């Protein structure tokens, strides 16, 4: 094989359609655009246009908002933590943190921290350093002899330029 003999596999690429080159080509005169009107012209973008009637996307009410201060937590139930302890993925002697949960495979991304939820039963005596926890989870952790420390995390507010 030589460099000047390299070519695509047959049929891997099509040549472009040449329009407006006579009626014998099959794409002559109107070039496949039909006859007259706005859509026969170039540069037309009328995606939501309904003939002057108020378009559907403007008739429907707006809903919801974006909270720039909202936090996105990884949520873990106590039952799932107990299963991980039983399977040996979490060591009861080590403090459970965001990093240790990622290492054990219980969560995949750090996000804004971990929130412990109270679904399930926790028998192991674990100590936690997490961003948030439900009241039932805190009660269950303390009832099993463990401890929990909630880390204070403030979200970064979107900043406007100080110079005005």
Task: List its traits.
18% helix, 164 residues, 11% strand, three-stranded parallel β-sheet, elongated, 5 strands, rRNA-binding, Ribosomal Protein L15, Chain: K, domain 2, alpha/beta, two-stranded parallel sheet
Descriptive notes:
With 164 residues, the chain is α/β, with parallel strands linked by helices. The chain has a domain at 74-150: Ribosomal Protein L15, Chain: K, domain 2. The chain is built from four helices and five strands, in the order αβααβββαβ. The strands form two sheets. It has a three-stranded parallel β-sheet. Strands 3-5 form a two-stranded parallel sheet. The chain is elongated, with a radius of gyration of 31 Å.
Distance between the termini: 67 Å
Uncertain segments = none
- Computed structural class: alpha/beta
The coarse silhouette is: elongated
Might you state the CATH topology name of the domain at 74-150? Ribosomal Protein L15, Chain: K, domain 2
Question: Class of the domain at 74-150, according to the CATH hierarchy?
Answer: Alpha Beta
**Would you report the number of β strands?**
5
Estimated share of beta-strand residues: 5-15%
Q: What is the residue-mean pLDDT, rounded to a whole number?
A: 90
Please bin the fraction of helical residues: 10-25%
Q: Over the alpha carbons, how many angstroms does the gyration radius reach? A: 31 Å
User: What can be said about the biggest beta sheet?
Assistant: 3 strands, parallel
Architecture (CATH level 2) name of the domain at 74-150: Ribosomal Protein L15, Chain: K, domain 2
Strand order of the largest sheet: 1-2-4
Order of helices and strands: HEHHEEEHE
**Number of helical runs?**
4
Family: Belongs to the universal ribosomal protein uL15 family.
Function: Binds to the 23S rRNA.
Keywords: Ribonucleoprotein, Ribosomal protein, RNA-binding, rRNA-binding
Pfam family, one: Ribosomal_L27A
């Amino acid at each position: 094989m030589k460099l000047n003999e390299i070519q695509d596999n047959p049929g891997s690429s099509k040549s472009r359609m040449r329009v407006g080159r006579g009626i014998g080509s099959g794409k002559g005169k109107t070039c496949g655009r039909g006859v007259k009107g706005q859509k026969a012209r170039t540069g037309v973008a009328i995606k939501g246009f309904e003939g002057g009637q108020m378009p559907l996307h403007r008739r429907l009410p707006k809903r919801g908002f974006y909270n720039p201060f909202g936090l996105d937590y990884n949520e873990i139930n106590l039952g799932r933590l107990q299963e991980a302890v039983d399977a040996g993925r979490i060591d009861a002697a080590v403090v459970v943190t965001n990093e240790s949960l990622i290492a054990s495979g219980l969560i995949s991304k750090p996000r804004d921290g971990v929130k412990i939820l109270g679904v399930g039963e926790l028998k192991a005596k674990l100590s936690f350093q997490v961003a948030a926890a439900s009241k039932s989870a805190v009660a269950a952790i303390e009832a099993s002899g463990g401890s929990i420390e909630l880390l204070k995390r403030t979200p970064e507010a979107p900043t406007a330029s100080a110079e005005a």
